[in-house]
Design a protein that fits this description.
With 319 residues, this protein is α+β, with helices and mostly antiparallel strands. It has a single domain, classed as Double-stranded beta-helix (4-Layer Sandwich). The protein is built from six helices and 19 strands. A seven-stranded mixed beta sheet has the order 1-2-3-16-7-18-4. α4 packs across α6. The longest helix is centred in the last third of the chain and has 18 residues.
């Protein structure tokens, strides 16, 4: 009898797969873990359905895809490091960090982005698990950069290909420079500790290509509106206009060729951070949402710092 079942993530999508029937015991088999990793490489995203919602299961699923790494921002909340090393806590607290998007007040809204764009190294992937859910919202969207590259208007694709994007660790809603919704304003800033501000100030700007080619040959359009500052060598009105056009086109295409996951108890999900973009719909400011995420080590080797990090920057934090 098979150790798990597979089916498409969603009919009509060129990416993603669902896995069901997976158990903690089955994951002790290295050949099975390798099989799951091969599905991940092929499809870019996996939703694990009706799996055991335990720390051990999240770590076992994560082990299919490589070793864990610590999150590069020290101020990000950690789950018990002795019990779950490398696991961060993503919590949306009541009334803390609120933005108005197209007439709705939302907490923990995030635009299309890839993780760790502000760092010289990316992470291969993240495994996400919903611990506390909200009644409405809290949906995570996923958009495949391979499909995005193919769907992009030819002229715009030609103009952005070969460009590099500059990113900084800038998380506040009023710091979003590109790809803003038509109706957008910050209502309440996100909480920001002195430790976070100190690390952000010490970090140089990071640079990543707008388009890159996978070892398997596919080109990936990989631009994060979140934390983007401009184009390398073209921080001009014309360069900013090009980056804005790219981010708005991602928003437009994201309405039709993306997958939006409404979390249920029993779900875990992994996405390829080197290939996929993701976003968060946000939730009502009066509700709280809690996610646990592991960070899988691995990089594509194309990111870099604009300048050398300051001596004061903790090298361990950048691993």
């Amino acid at each position: 009898m098979p150790s798990f079942t597979t089916r498409p993530l969603q009919e009509g999508l060129p990416f993603g797969v669902r896995i069901g029937g997976l158990t903690l015991g089955a994951l002790q088999d290295k050949a099975l873990r390798d099989e799951i990793d091969a599905l991940f490489v092929r499809h870019g995203m996996i939703v694990f359905e009706e799996v055991e919602q335990t720390d051990a299961m999240q770590l076992a699923i994560s082990s299919c895809f490589g070793p864990l790494k610590e999150h590069p921002v020290k101020a990000v909340g950690r789950v018990d490091s002795d019990r779950m090393p490398g696991v961060i806590e993503i919590r949306s607290r009541r009334g803390r960090g609120t933005v108005e998007v197209d007439g709705k007040l939302l907490s923990h809204w995030l635009p299309w982005h890839f993780d760790h764009c502000y760092n010289d190294e990316l992470n291969r992937a993240g495994v996400l698990r919903s611990v506390e859910r909200v009644a409405e919202g809290g949906v995570t969207g996923f958009l495949d950069g391979v499909a995005l590259y193919q769907a992009f208007p030819e002229d715009l694709r030609r103009r952005i290909e070969g460009a590099e994007v500059i990113y900084t660790l800038s998380t506040q809603y009023d710091e979003l420079k590109f790809g803003r919704p038509k109706q957008y304003r910050m209502i309440e800033p996100k909480p920001s500790s002195p430790e976070f501000k100190a690390q952000a100030a010490a970090m140089p700007r990071a640079i990543h290509p707008a388009v890159w080619t996978r070892p398997t040959g596919e080109k990936v359009l990989h631009v994060s509106a979140y934390m983007a500052q401009g184009l390398v060598g073209d921080e001009t009105p014309a360069g900013d206009a090009l980056l804005e056009e790219v981010c708005q086109e991602i928003n437009r295409l994201g309405e039709g060729c993306s997958y939006h996951h409404r979390w249920s108890e029993g779900d875990m999900a992994i996405w390829d951070n080197l290939r996929m973009l993701h976003c968060v719909s946000g939730n009502h400011p009066d509700e709280e949402r809690l996610m646990y995420r592991t960070t899988i080590a691995g990089d594509y080797g194309l990111g870099r710092w604009e300048t050398e990090p300051k001596v004061a920057l903790d090298a361990d934090a950048m691993a």
